Amino acid sequence: MSEPGEKKAPAVRKIFPPAVNTETERFWKAAEEGKLLYGYCLACNEPHYYPRSFCPFCFSERVEWRQASGDATVYAYSIMYRSPTGPYTIAYVELAEGPRILTNLVDCDFEKIAIDAAAKLVWKPSDGGAPVPFFTLA
Question: CA 79, CA 10: separation in Å to the nearest integer?
Answer without folding.
Answer: 16
